[in-house]
Amino acid sequence: MTIRVRFAPSPTGLLHIGNARTALINWLFVRSHQLKGQKAHFLLRQDDTDIERSKEEYAEAIKQDLAWLGITHDAFMKQSDRFARYDEMKQKLIDEGRLYPCYETPEELDFKRKRQMSRGEPPLYDRAALKLTETEKATFEKEGRRPHWRFKLLPEEIKWQDLIRGENQFHGAHLSDPVLVRADGAYLYTLTSVVDDIDTEITHILRGEDHVTNTAVQVQLFEALGRKADTIHFSHTTLLKDVDGSPLSKRLGSLSLRNLREQGIEPMAINCLLARLGTSQPIELHHNLDELAQGFDLATFSRTPPRFDMHDLETLNRKIYQVYPYEALIPKLKDLGAPDITETIWNHVRGNLKTLEELSQWQQVFFGEINPTVEDKDYLQTALKLLPPTPWSTETWSDWTAAIKAETGRKGRDLFMPLRQALTGFDHGPEMKELLPLLGYGLAVKRLSI
């Protein structure tokens, strides 16, 4: 048997950290089986039935973002190419009495929901449309009402063994008949996804736990359309939380892959974090996706919602730069605003970088102008007078600061920090014993002469 999964984003916005995690989990699941010699297939499906909101620029951006992460696909399809197939399946459900027209307006449905809730009842659709006569339907049609179509759930137990959540149980009598086709004729995800999963022979559906109730409905829909639901393996991951425990969805816009890429976050930093968030495995740097795939196992995923911390991403980014070869950096230096950064400078500053964009600041430190905050000019004048003659080595800094300490009586932070700030503009960074020889005598004199 060939394992088949799909990642199905809607091109209505940019790919963000949440759905990138879903894409990565699906890809790693496939790749982990391929590395064991099993046949496995990854489908990228574009869920673009929402014609008004779907944009080609978003569709292209999604493909570019996935490619940037290294997530490749074995096949690609668009739902907008399959309306004839959805029409066919809609008619099948109508013919079998599982899809029925409803004529309530949104206002009428809202009134019903509020009335049920005021009575302490669950807000389930009351199936009033099933009691309509043909004459009543015709009257609604004459009024200009166009029906939306609901799937009639069977009043029976719904079960599946989730690969992460364990056994899940629902009952059709406790769920509301879902709308599958809107009044404007648009197909909703609940139907189109099942039709596509059947036609493409998907074996594993890996997605977020916000789809759990939807899965309960789709189990019956699979059966109604001719696919035994027990031939599909469902898996629902917990959703990411923000650092404070609030829903991450509140700021997903700022966590688009495009935004992270523009900030200088490396793709493998994202992959390493997202692959291990919510699992019992440690978050650590891996150099490629195959390394991640070798240790991938759905059994390690927890039911506790993981927290996404930007600091973790920056830490992984730093670790990447610690082994990042200068040869790979050279083509990027001009665009980064750091054309003069040498290999020696790179080797000394890379451990302090959150992103490559910060190299432009070090370009200014070594080759440009800085604007340090200077509070004690007299101290800097004393330091200037004691500046050792060239040539300089890594011993020069300790010799110089020892002389300043003897002259001024300063020690610790009061001794070192004003010098670091005056020479680099920063209050942190690589060891000054390494930086001072790279700055050189002339630049040091200039910056101490304030």
Structure overview:
This protein has 450 residues and is of the alpha/beta class. It has four domains: 3-84 and 188-237, HUPs (Rossmann fold); 97-155 and 164-181, Glutamyl-tRNA Synthetase, domain 3 (Alpha-Beta Complex); 329-365, no CATH class; 370-448, Arc Repressor Mutant, subunit A. Helix content is 44%, strand content 11%. It is built from 19 helices and ten strands. It has a three-stranded parallel sheet with strand order 1-2-3. A three-stranded antiparallel sheet has the order 4-5-8. The longest helix has 18 residues, at 17-34. It starts with a strand and ends with a helix. The model has no long low-confidence stretch (mean pLDDT 95).
List the helices and strands and how they pair.
Layout: E1 3-7, H1 17-34, E2 40-46, H2 56-69, E3 75-78, H3 83-95, E4 99-102, H4 106-118, H5 134-142, E5 148-151, E6 157-162, E7 166-171, E8 179-181, H6 189-199, E9 204-208, H7 212-224, E10 233-237, H8 257-262, H9 267-276, H10 289-294, H11 310-322, H12 326-329, H13 343-349, H14 359-367, H15 377-385, H16 396-408, H17 413-424, H18 432-439, H19 441-448
Parallel strand pairs: 1-2, 2-3, 9-10
Antiparallel strand pairs: 4-5, 5-8, 6-7
Helix pairs in contact: 1-9, 6-7, 9-11
Concise synopsis of the structure shown:
By secondary structure, the protein is an alpha/beta fold. The protein has 19 helices and 10 strands. The termini are far apart.
In angstroms, what separates the terminal alpha carbons? 74 Å
**Overall CATH architecture of the largest domain:** 3-Layer(aba) Sandwich
CATH superfamily of the largest domain: HUPs
CATH fold category name of the largest domain: Rossmann fold
Structural class: alpha/beta
Number of helices: 19
Assign the CATH class of the largest domain: Alpha Beta
Secondary-structure element pattern, one letter each: EHEHEHEHHEEEEHEHEHHHHHHHHHHHH
Based on CA atoms alone, the radius of gyration comes out at 31 Å
| Main sheet attributes: strand count, strand direction, barrel closure | 3 strands, parallel
| Relative strand content | 5-15%
Uncertain runs with pLDDT below 50, 5 residues or more? none
Instruction: Give the overall shape, derived from the CA principal axes.
Output: elongated
How confident is the prediction overall: mean pLDDT? Answer: 95
- Tell me the domain tally: 4
The helix content, as a percent range, equals 40-55%
Tally of strands: 10
Largest sheet strand order: 1-2-3
Enzyme class: ligase
Family: Belongs to the class-I aminoacyl-tRNA synthetase family. Glutamate--tRNA ligase type 1 subfamily.
Motif ('KMSKS' region): 247-251
Binding site for ATP: 250
